[in-house]
């Protein structure tokens, strides 16, 4: 099993082709989706974390 995972790691980091050095083209809709997703994660993880955890805790209490 160790040999398999070492081969996977070797392919990921050592055996790189020419196409791997090219930047990935990102269109305008994809950039907007990425930006909105990032904003949502940051807002939920910083400002709205406590209300979200309180809501989840109250929902879990109702299960037990």
What descriptors fit this protein?
72% helix, 64 residues, mainly alpha, flat
In short:
This protein is mostly helical and 64 residues long.
Structure write-up:
The protein has 64 residues and is an all-alpha fold. It has one domain (1-62). It has 3 helices and no strands. The chain has helices spanning 2-13, 28-46, 49-63. The longest helix has 19 residues, at 28-46.
Main sheet properties: none
- Total helices: the number is 3
Distance between the termini: 41 Å
Q: Spans of 5+ residues with little confidence (pLDDT < 50)?
A: none
SS-based class: mainly alpha
Overall geometry comes to flat
Residue-averaged pLDDT = 90
Indicate how many domains the architecture comprises. Answer: 1
Radius of gyration: 21 Å
**How much beta, percentage-wise?**
under 5%
Could you state the order of secondary-structure elements as H and E?
A: HHH
| Counted beta strands | 0
Q: What helical percentage do the residues reach?
A: over 70%
Organism: Candidatus Thermofonsia Clade 1 bacterium
Keywords: Membrane, Transmembrane, Transmembrane helix
Transmembrane segments: 30-53
Protein name: NADH-quinone oxidoreductase subunit N
Write the layout of secondary structure elements.
Elements: H1 2-13, H2 28-46, H3 49-63
Keywords: Membrane, Transmembrane, Transmembrane helix
Transmembrane segments: 30-53
Organism: Candidatus Thermofonsia Clade 1 bacterium
